Each structure stands twice: as C-alpha cells, then as structure tokens.
Amino acid sequence: MADDDIQSTIDTTRSLLSEISEDKQTLLDLPADLTIPEVGRIKKEWEMLVEESEHLVIDARNVEQIDTAGIQLLLAYIKECQPSGGRVSLEPQPSETFIAVAETLGANILLDLE
Predict the structure, then answer these.
(1) 3-state secondary structure of 76
(2) What pLDDT does residue 21 have?
(3) Among candidates 101, 78, 79, which has minimal Cα distance to 89?
C-alpha cells in the first residue's frame, strides 16, 4: 500500500469517527459518496468502529450518492448491533438522496425512515 493510500485511509477513519463517548456512542459520519467502490474501501474501518459501539449514530445528511452496496452495509451493521443490545439511530435527518434510495430499495422501514 502506498503512503498516499495509507494517509487516505487514516483521513477517512478520522472523518468517519467523529466521537466515541464514555457510553461507547459512536458517530459514523457518512461520506458524500457511499457507492460500491467506497464501500469496499471503508468496510474494514467501519467494522472496527461498530464492534466497539453500544450506540451507533449514523449521520447521513451529507450523502449525495448511495447505491445498494451502501444501504446493504448499513443494514448489516444494524443487524450486527441488535443481538448484543446495541442501538442504532440516524441523526440528524438524512439527505433527500439517502431517503429516496432507501425508499426505492425498500429499506426505509428497516432504517426507521417512516
């Protein structure tokens, strides 16, 4: 991996993880582009964040592009958090693009976007 790629990975991780509080609340700030190339690149980084979180807060207000892979990744993390009693919430209101794609894919109910 090139130094530029390593730095990019570090920068992405820092931007995705805005805060971990004492109650293990993790803020996952979604990038503007959450499509298959990005999902493949950031999946491992997110796994580490989600594993340590008791409450995962997903900020999707800046999402400009999202596809099935992006929605699937979020649903997988929500499913992963539930058995252990973890909570997941979307705060603040997601972008119109995020909501439209979630509705088109039928994920709005699973993402509690009703």
Answers:
(1) helix
(2) 46
(3) 78
pLDDT tens sequence across 89-99: 888 899 999 99
Q: For residue 75, give both structure tokens.
A: 């649903």
pTM, full prediction: 0.74
Lowest mean pLDDT among 34-38, 46-50, 57-61: 46-50
- Tell how far CA 102 is from the center of its chain: 13
Q: Beta 55-59 vs 25-29: how paired, if at all?
A: parallel
Q: How far apart are CA 17 and CA 27, in angstroms?
A: 6
Give me the phi and psi of 16, to 5 degrees please: -75, -35
Could you tell me which of 18, 65, 70, 77 has the C-alpha nearest to residue 41? 70
Q: Which domains are present in the chain?
A: 3-16+24-104 (3.30.750.24)
